Amino acid sequence: MTDWIYPFPPLQGGTLLKRYKRFFADIELDSGEIITAHCPNTGPMTGVCHLGGRVMVSHNPSPKRKLAYTWELAAVQDTVPTWVGANTALPNRVIKAALKDRVIPEVGPYTDLRTEVPYGRDRKSRIDFLLSTAEQPDIPDTYVEVKNTTWAQGTLVLFPDTVTTRGQKHLRELTELQGTAAAVMLYFINRGDCDRFAPGDEADPEYGQLLRSAIAAGVRVLPCRFDVQPTGIRYLGLAELVLG
Predict the structure, then answer these.
(1) Average pLDDT for residues 228-242, to the nearest whole number?
(2) Beta bridge partners of 179
(3) Angstrom distance (rounded) from CA 36 to CA 192
(4) How far is CA 32 from the centre of its chain?
(5) CB neighbours (10 Å) of residue 79?
(6) Contacts made by residues 119-125, CB under 8 angstroms, sequence distance 24+
(7) pLDDT the model gives residue 1
(8) What are residue 205's phi and psi, to 5 degrees?
(9) Are 143 and 177 in contact (CB under 8 A)?
(10) With the CA atoms of 227, 229, 231 and 236 taken in that order, what torsion angle do they form, in degrees rounded to the nearest 10?
């Protein structure tokens, strides 16, 4: 019996040779074979993308895929090597499993879970998760937005690591929900070596201001810590929120 929320399929180790055009990474596998893997991360991967660094990839050959390999993990090292998630498609899958297993009680009560539900003034945005309690209509729906974060300074993890107009828009929309519904900004800390979270004011000061305003308006912030290993991902609880 394991406490992995998300077990990885068998992964292969290798060395990062090159990352280019955002979506491609050349990697030398431990076997000596050089492959091109899909990099499912459009961000700068600040502090995570190191040429010559240790990485892990999954292998899913299919005629429907252009690339059979996907870059899943990167190793960073200070005093102790730490695995960091490189696949930004995974956090929502992991959070969905965590919500189904009800391992994050801080999101509040719910009986029903829906994904990618349209919301916002123009209904053109989609919330990652909408939680509701059909049997108790007096309990407001909870809108949950998930953001992957890997940029660290020591044991402090920060989001964002670059200017994100999309992220700013999400904060404004969550803030506008106050009074009609509950809103949660959930930060998926995709590495196990950080126990504090702060807005990345250095990278995007406007985002930091919007986050503080959202909190003041009633938006709940849940910085969720995850232990990431080549065998799987497990939940560690909440990090300390640092706003000063």
Answers:
(1) 97
(2) none
(3) 27
(4) 31
(5) 6
(6) 119/143, 119/173, 119/177, 120/173, 120/176, 121/173, 121/176, 125/169, 125/170, 125/173
(7) 39
(8) -60, -30
(9) yes
(10) -10
CA distances, 43 to each of 29, 39, 110, 156, 189 (Å): 24, 10, 33, 19, 15
Asked if the model's pLDDT at residue 180 lies above 90, the reply is: yes
**pLDDT digit string (tens) for 71-127?**
999 999 765 779 999 999 999 999 999 999 999 999 999 999 999 999 987 778 999
Task: Annotate 137-183 with three-state secondary structure.
Answer: CCCCCEEEEEEEECEEECCEEEECCCCCHHHHHHHHHHHHCCCCCEE
Torsion angle (degrees, nearest 10) of CA 99, 103, 106, 110: 40
Q: Contact at 8 Å (CB) between 181 and 228?
A: no
Query: What's the average model confidence in pLDDT over 3-19?
Result: 95
Instruction: Give me 83's structure tokens.
Output: 């695995």
Parallel, antiparallel, or unpaired for β 69-77 and 34-38?
Answer: parallel
Query: Cβ contacts of residue 218 below 8 Å, gap of 6+?
Result: 178, 183
Contact 107, 222 (CB under 8 A): yes
Q: What is the DSSP letter of 106?
A: G
Peptide bond just before 199 cis, omega within 30 deg: no
- Give the pair of three-digit tokens for residue 135: 């049997």
